[in-house]
Design a protein that fits this description.
The model is unreliable at 97-101 (pLDDT under 50). This protein has helices at residues 19-25, 63-67, 98-101, and strands at 2-5, 9-11, 43-48, 51-52, 70-72, 77-78, 82-85. With 106 residues, it is α+β, with helices and mostly antiparallel strands. The two termini are 25 Å apart. The strands form two sheets. It has a five-stranded mixed beta sheet with strand order 2-1-7-3-5. A two-stranded antiparallel sheet has the order 4-6.
């Protein structure tokens, strides 16, 4: 399971499914770009648990950022239950949660 803070949403994640794929499958929307680990648009922060970072550019996600919990949602696969922080920059939204970030559902 993936729990998103501060919104409190929980999403099931299939084995070998990325965080981004699980989010999109659940009907949530977030900002993302290339889906190949090269742009960094989908960067999020791991609060608890572990992820397999997958393929990602060291220029986009350097080791020091990984050590602080950063990961690219398009590449990272949870290794068990995880808690992930979403920020206004991620533009996470569901119609019910759009007001948290001042966004309108689209």
């Amino acid at each position: 399971m993936i729990t998103f803070t501060p919104v409190g949403e929980t999403v099931a994640c299939h084995p070998d499914e990325t965080v981004l794929a699980a989010l999109l499958r659940s009907g949530a929307k977030v900002l993302f770009g290339c889906r190949g680990g090269g742009c960094g648009t989908c960067k999020m922060r791991l609060v608890a648990g572990r992820v397999d970072h997958g393929r990602c550019s060291a220029a986009v996600l350097p080791d020091d950022e990984k050590a602080k919990g950063a990961f690219l949602s398009c590449q990272a696969r949870p290794l068990g239950d995880v808690t992930v922080e979403v920020t206004a920059a991620n533009r996470y939204r569901r119609l019910a949660f759009a007001a948290i970030w001042g966004l309108r559902g689209s």
